Amino acid sequence: MFLPGNIQNCIDLLETAGFAAYAVGGCVRDACLGLIPHDYDLCTSALPAQTEAVFRDYRLVLSGEKHGTVTVITEDGPVEITTFRTEGGYRDNRHPDWVQFVPDIQGDLARRDFTVNAMAYSPTRGFADPFGGREDLKNHVLRAVGDPVSRFQEDSLRILRGVRFAARFGLNPEEKTMEAMLSQAGLMENLARERVFEELCKLLVVAKAQDITRFAEILAAVIPELKPMIGFDQHSPHHAYDLITHTAHVVEGVPAELPLRWAALLHDTGKVETFTLDATGRGHFYGHAKESAAIADSILRRLKAPTTLREEVVALIGKHMTRLQPDRKFLRRQASKYGFPMVESMLCLQEADMGSKGTGEDDGSAVFAEVRQILAELKAEDACLNLKALAVNGNDLMALGFRGKEIGTCLNALLEQVVEERLPNEKEALLAFAAGRKEETQ
Ligand code: ATP
Ligand code: MG
């Protein structure tokens, strides 16, 4: 396994001082998969004070020392070095009541969540892989270290982490692990909402449709609003899938950006409440976009999502049934009102929604392509679509005698003329129009 120079150097310094040292956890897993690790964690037999002594010539960060972690600032960035430790207690299903340093790597690896995360590597000592993580990776298996039920009872966030690792690396939970993920999912209620939200974000950006469907029950344990969507028949000739499967395809269908992925996951939550059957046995969902937006708002508030994210998701969901038209004027208006990034996100969500019905009927992709083309043209033209880009400003209007509120009202009226392409964005023309307005109101 390749180790960057600074990591190799940290290991050498610890080994020279007489301690065992390994790269451990995610970096070993990633390297075994042929991926480039985004960071390298080290573990060692040295106690924190001994690690500090070994790295006395370096700048150190000691905020994690209580848990055995000393952070060494190397030329190539910070490296976390943690003393071999075990932990126990977990009366709250989330935090260990105690941690204890142990003399060897085996004890340290045993506290880790999944076999694929419980591997270590040292250039001189080779792999430490007591739970068969490499074999599991080869067979695409996600397996808890030790007894899965007790491991998830210790820390129920591991259940969501398991979902994330399964999705990210295409792993299938081994039978006992999957059973325990399901049977213990209720414990996740005890977790801090922020931690659940953060874990869901990490999952959403790697999730494929099949991950949302195969782990739907687990996701519903942290977002109960998803529960009635599982197996929900839409009674519609336009929908071959049940609600959660349709949702899952939309999630995969939008770019892997947080607002879009969240919007995709929650865009049809309001269908359950608004469902009606007509005389012919066909399902309808009148007003479901608005209802879904309200439900998404309450879910994201509950999960303590950042306000900007929540507002963007709610806006996207609220507009997901207002189809974007391949019409220049219409799109200029939309871009002026919401900005290009938002309109582009609306397009992505609508496109994925239409493309996830599973019926094989026309998914509107030709129309969406036209919309995308027009948006690109409008962007390239650098058209004036907001007040900042307007060729006149408040001072210009004051020079014409406008005062107070009149100024903003007139600027907006001018912008509307320009957006509608009734006036060119040129100072002279705009001032003439403004002067005309002024006369009218006098
Ligand atoms: P990523 O690439 O997402 O950072 P990672 O495996 O490095 O993946 P981290 O959350 O950074 O994940 O954790 C580092 C290591 O610590 C894991 O590989 C695992 O061995 C262990 N670990 C982290 N969280 C837990 C937990 N809740 N329970 C048990 N072990 C954990
Ligand atoms: Mg990591």
Strand percentage lies at 5-15%
Enumerate the spans where pLDDT stays under 50 for 5 or more consecutive residues.
none
> What is the number of helical segments per DSSP (H or I, 4+ residues)?
22
Mean pLDDT: 95
Termini separation: 81 Å
Major β-sheet, in short? 7 strands, mixed
**Helix content class:** 40-55%
- Report strand order across the widest sheet: 3-4-5-2-1-8-9
Tell me the number of strands.
Answer: 13
* Large-scale geometry: globular
What compounds sit in this structure? adenosine-5'-triphosphate, magnesium ion
Structural class: alpha+beta
Cα-atom radius of gyration:
28 Å
Please describe what this structure looks like.
By secondary structure, the chain is of the alpha+beta class. It is 50% helix and 10% strand. The strands form four sheets. It has a seven-stranded mixed β-sheet with strand order 3-4-5-2-1-8-9. Strands 6-7 form a two-stranded antiparallel sheet. A hairpin with a 3-residue loop joins strand 8 and strand 9. Helix 7 packs parallel to helix 9, helix 12 (243-253) crosses helix 18 and helix 17 (328-338) packs across helix 19 (365-381). The structure holds adenosine-5'-triphosphate and magnesium ion (MG). The site of magnesium ion has 2 residues, from loops. Adenosine-5'-triphosphate is lined by residues 25-26, 38, 41, 112-113, 117-118, 155, 157-158.
How is the topology of this model organized?
Blueprint: H1 5-16, E1 21-24, H2 26-32, E2 41-44, H3 48-54, E3 59-61, E4 69-74, E5 77-83, E6 85-88, E7 98-101, H4 105-110, E8 120-122, E9 126-128, H5 133-138, E10 141-142, H6 148-154, H7 157-169, E11 172-173, H8 175-183, H9 193-204, H10 209-214, H11 216-222, H12 243-253, H13 258-266, H14 271-274, E12 276-277, E13 283-284, H15 288-302, H16 307-318, H17 328-338, H18 340-354, H19 365-381, H20 394-399, H21 405-419, H22 427-441
Helix pairs in contact: 7-9, 12-13, 12-18, 13-16, 15-16, 17-18, 17-19, 18-19
Magnesium ion (MG) is lined by residues 26, 39.
